[in-house]
User: Which sequence fits this backbone?
């Protein structure tokens, strides 16, 4: 057979997610999506545009504005033979679903001695700098990492988003899937062929020797930008994207830190008591004697996200702030 | 000699066989709960339990109207629902004692009994917490065309929870086969429901277009008759219903709530026990209508008691789970 050179197909993050959903909806008749304004409206971020015309309003199900209610319905539906995908428009609205996720979905398998399962996915968003103020800008993924029984997925590229989402939908557990709302238009290569990405496997987004930057979701692109600036300054940064926060691929992180001997952790959630603290602790415990400097953490400032652009912009890590912190950590090498 | 069906109860739904089955089941719940109280009092049971004594006719009358594959969701006061849906007392006691042989391998305890084999989606320790799960199960039943019906048991305390109204709205919109059963035992824990509940409970259903009615929860025949009608209605695709069942909790909020006079009088409790006991009322009916004599009822009592005693002994003798099981079943 002659070799056919296939052009590398590029999709946006939104397109990759839509394609993953469509493929899984086609593959498994038990899968359905429910949420606010997801059918004809295709979701305010237009991630779901067109799905209703292929799958119909029974499987792309518009709900009332009742996040707790339709999340609860998803939990019960998941227990009894369906595979719901819940759409929570803004991650800030997760607060309304917490009892269903924390006390019900996360615990039902364990409390029942393994008899009931809750195979559901909750898709939602994170990320600031959209000028949406304090109740539409938070990154609350750390809350879910804190709860045994939940899995937490944080894709940073169209390729990862598609492969991870397909795996999440096939998982037998409740999975919370965070998408950076500012990255929906980010383009990247996505093969047309079927593929999935396992949960719990980190990806080295950029190889380097001098410093490890563990970055999640929205912060991966920021870290890659910072790495270019660092390169110009003669510092070679390795970017590790855990891709899923639980399960967490500690080995890939530790292997990198042991190689570079310096580590930063950057995540858009609140820095206090957050994801960066957990990963820094993993590094401190697993690679202490390899470290030449304390692990540096960078996350969102401990304030409600302000509306005014100059105020909002200083609340989250940027390429520049990351670059400066990394350079300082390397002793301005 | 076979006993003929009494002319006034010739309806199949109230056949003698059914009445005796319901009598036996109510008695089983009563004796089970008395045994739980005894285990607690003798410090043989870890933690607490919320007893269903006095409310037996509700769970039994309703669950007898269900198919084995129909679903229920239950509450922190859930032993009665589980037993009425077919749970066996030995595995129930074992769970209450935290033993490996329990329904949930000892990981759930009194407030989390769950059993797929009997359609029990689980008791729930968050008040109102299972209303969504019940509605979701009804969503599956409709979507998958299984013909199953879901009964969502909750106490009148859950009327204060917003989730109930969110899912009732969804169930009505989507015409789901779920029956919301509000067991009004008069007390939200230690507070009379009139202090916490505005308006008319039954008016809550019609606000969503959900047909609503009430029934005397001490009269198992009435409960069963009403439940049968509502279950058939749901099974026929006519959508959800709200059933308010008026009943009474004989014991405290939980086994440790023994001094209750600050929120209700002993006289009130005694009145319910003397005049409105569901087991006594059914026994009176059975004997008055010559459907069973005292000796037959005593025999049932002795049989149930022997079963319960055996079940307790089983649970007491059963081993605890090995500690290496603590991390199992977190993820499927």
Assistant:
């Amino acid at each position: 057979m002659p070799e056919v050179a296939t052009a590398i197909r590029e999709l946006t993050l939104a397109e990759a997610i839509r394609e993953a959903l469509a493929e899984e909806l086609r593959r498994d008749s038990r899968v359905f999506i429910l949420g606010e304004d997801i059918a004809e409206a295709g979701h305010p971020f237009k991630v779901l545009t067109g799905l209703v015309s292929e799958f119909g309003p029974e499987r792309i199900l518009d709900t009332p504005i009742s996040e707790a209610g339709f999340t609860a319905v998803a939990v019960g539906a998941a227990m009894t033979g369906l595979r719901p995908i819940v759409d929570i428009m803004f991650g800030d609205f997760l607060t309304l679903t917490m009892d269903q996720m924390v006390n019900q979905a996360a615990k039902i398998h364990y409390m029942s001695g393994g008899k009931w399962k809750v195979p559901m996915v909750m898709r939602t968003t994170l990320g600031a700098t959209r000028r949406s103020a304090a109740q539409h800008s938070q990154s609350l993924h750390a809350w879910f990492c804190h709860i045994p029984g939940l899995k937490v997925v944080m894709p940073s590229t169209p390729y990862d988003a598609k492969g991870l989402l397909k795996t999440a939908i096939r998982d037998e557990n409740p999975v919370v899937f965070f998408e950076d709302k500012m990255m929906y238009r980010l383009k990247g290569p996505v093969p047309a062929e079927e593929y999935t990405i396992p949960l719990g496997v980190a990806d080295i987004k950029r190889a380097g020797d001098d410093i490890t930057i563990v970055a999640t979701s929205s912060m991966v692109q920021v870290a890659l930008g910072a790495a270019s600036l660092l390169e110009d300054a003669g510092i070679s940064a390795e970017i590790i994207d855990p891709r899923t926060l639980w399960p967490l691929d500690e080995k890939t992180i530790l292997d990198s830190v042991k190689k570079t001997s310096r580590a930063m952790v950057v995540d858009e959630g609140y820095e206090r008591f957050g994801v960066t603290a957990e990963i820094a602790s993993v590094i401190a415990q697993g690679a202490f004697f390899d470290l030449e400097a304390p692990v540096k953490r960078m996350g969102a400032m401990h304030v409600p996200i302000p509306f005014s652009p100059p105020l909002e912009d200083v609340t989250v890590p940027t390429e520049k702030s990351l670059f400066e912190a990394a350079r300082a950590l390397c002793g301005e090498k | 000699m076979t006993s003929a069906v009494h002319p006034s109860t010739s309806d199949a739904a109230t056949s003698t066989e059914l009445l005796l089955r319901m009598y036996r089941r109510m008695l089983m719940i009563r004796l089970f709960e008395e045994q739980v109280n005894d285990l607690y009092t003798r410090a043989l049971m870890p933690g607490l339990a919320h007893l269903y004594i006095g409310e037996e006719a509700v769970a039994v009358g309703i669950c007898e109207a269900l198919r084995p594959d129909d679903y229920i969701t239950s509450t922190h006061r859930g032993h009665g629902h589980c037993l009425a849906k077919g749970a066996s007392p030995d595995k129930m006691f074992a769970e209450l004692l935290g033993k490996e042989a329990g329904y949930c391998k000892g990981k759930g305890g009194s407030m989390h009994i769950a059993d797929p084999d009997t359609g029990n989606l689980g008791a729930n320790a968050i008040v109102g917490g299972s209303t969504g799960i019940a509605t979701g199960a009804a969503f599956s039943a409709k979507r998958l065309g299984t013909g199953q019906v879901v009964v969502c048991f909750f106490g009148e305390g859950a009327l204060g929870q917003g989730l109930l109204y969110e899912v009732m709205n969804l169930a009505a919109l989507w015409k789901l086969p779920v029956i919301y059963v509000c067991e009004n035992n008069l007390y939200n824990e230690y507070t009379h429901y009139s202090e916490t509940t505005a308006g008319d409970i039954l008016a809550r259903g019609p606000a969503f277009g959900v047909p609503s009615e009430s029934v005397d929860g001490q009269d198992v025949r009435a409960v069963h008759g009403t439940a049968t009608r509502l279950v058939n209605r749901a099974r026929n695709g006519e959508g959800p219903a709200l059933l308010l069942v008026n009943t009474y909790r004989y014991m405290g909020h939980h086994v440790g709530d023994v001094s209750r006079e600050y929120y209700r009088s002993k006289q009130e409790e005694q009145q319910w026990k003397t005049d409105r006991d569901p087991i006594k009322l059914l026994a009176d009916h059975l004997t008055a209508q010559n459907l069973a004599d005292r000796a037959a009822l005593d025999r049932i009592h002795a049989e149930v008691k022997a079963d319960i005693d055996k079940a307790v002994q089983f649970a007491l003798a059963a081993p605890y789970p090995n500690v290496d099981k603590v991390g199992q079943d977190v993820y499927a």
Observations:
- Chain B touches chain A at residues 71, 73, 102-108, 112, 114-116, 121-122, 124, 126, 129, 131-141, 143-144, 162-163, 166-167, 169-170, 173, 328-332 (CB under 8 Å).
